[in-house]
Amino acid sequence: MRTRLIGKKFFHITGVVLFVILASTIAGQAAEWKPSKPIQFIVPYAPGGGSDVLARSMIAAIGSEKLCPVPFMVVNQGGGSGLIGTTTAAQAKGNDHMLLTFISGQVAAALAAKGAPTFRDLTLLAGLAIDEQLIVIKTDSPFKTIEDVIAAAKQRPGTITIGGTATGQEDQMCNRLFERAADLKFRYVPFNSGGECITAVLGGHVEMIWANPSEFVPQWEAKMVRPIVVAKEKRMPELPDVPTFKEKGFNVTFEMFRGVGAPSGIPPGVAAFYESMLKQMAQSAAWNTGYLKKYMLSPTWRGSKEFTQFVVQNEPAFKGILTELGLIK
Asked: Is 10 left (phi over 0), alpha (psi -120 to 50) or beta?
C-alpha cells in the first residue's frame, strides 16, 4: 500500500515536471524566434517620400544598434494611394520575414476603396511617431504668407494648385479641412510620393504643396522651399517662424501617425520579436537623433495593442472627411 502510494506520487510529480519542462521549451522557442533570412520591407509609396525616409531611417538605426541578425530589403510599391503595397503585405498571410510601413493615409485609402484590405488584414506592430503637415512653397513664390494664398484663392476659386501625396490621404484630408475652415476651394493635384511633390513645386507645376518635414528638409536647408503654415496645435520648436493655422483663425490640426505593420497570421513569438526590436530602436540615440530630430517628428511610442486601438479610434474621423470629399458614397 505504501509502495503504491509512493509510486503514484512519483508518477504525478514526474508528470508535472515533464509538463513544466515542455511548456518552458515551447515558450522559450517562441521567445527565441529570430529572422533567418533577409526581411522584405514594403514601402507602399514611391522613393523619396516620408514613408521611404521612415523605412530607411529605421534600417539605419536598427543596424547601428545591431538589433536584427539579418539585413532588410526596401521594396517601394507606390500607387493606388498606398493600397498596392498594403495589399502585398495583406496577401502574404503568415510571412514572418516581411514588414510594412503603415501610416494614417493607408487607413484612409482602404476606406475609400471598397473591398481593399484594411489594417484589420495586417498585424500592427508599433506606432513610432507623429509627423507634421505643412503647406510649402517655392522660395521665390509670389505667395509670402498664408494670407496671400487665401486672398488669391478668394479671387480665383478652384484654380490655385496645391499638390499632395495620393488621393484621399493625409494631404488631401488636410486640404479639405483648410478649405472648410477658410471657405475656399483649391485644385488639388495628387502625386505618388512626397518626393514627387517636391519636384513638382520646384518645377513650377503646382503653386504649393502639402508636405512633412522629412519630405522638404533638404530643400529647405538649401533655401529652395519655405513652409508657411503648419496644421498643429502649437508652433514647431524647429520652425519657430512658421505660424499655425489656429493662430490665423482656422481650426486646422492633424496628427499623422507613422508606424510599422506585418502580414496577419504571424505567430505571437514573431510579432513579439519585431515589437521588441522596434521598441529598442525607438529608445536609441541613432533613432532619436538620426530620424526624429533630423526630420522634426514627435516621438510617440505605441506597442502593438495600443497602436491598433489608436488606429481604430482615428478611423471614424477619416471616414467623415472622405465622405465630404465625395470619396465615400
From this structure: alpha
Quick check: pTM over 0.85? Answer: no
Sign of CA dihedral 188, 184, 132, 301: negative
- pLDDT tens for residues 91-138? 999 999 999 999 999 999 999 998 899 999 999 999 999 999 999 999
Q: Which domain holds residue 55?
A: 39-130+256-324
DSSP annotation string for 262-306:
EETT--HHHHHHHHHHHHHHHTSHHHIIIIIIHHTPEEEEE-HHH
| 126 and 138 belong to one structural domain | no
- 143 vs 152: CA distance, rounded Å: 9
Dist. CA 38–CA 170, nearest whole Å: 31
- For 154, the 3-state DSSP assignment is helix
CATH number of the domain enclosing 281: 3.40.190.150
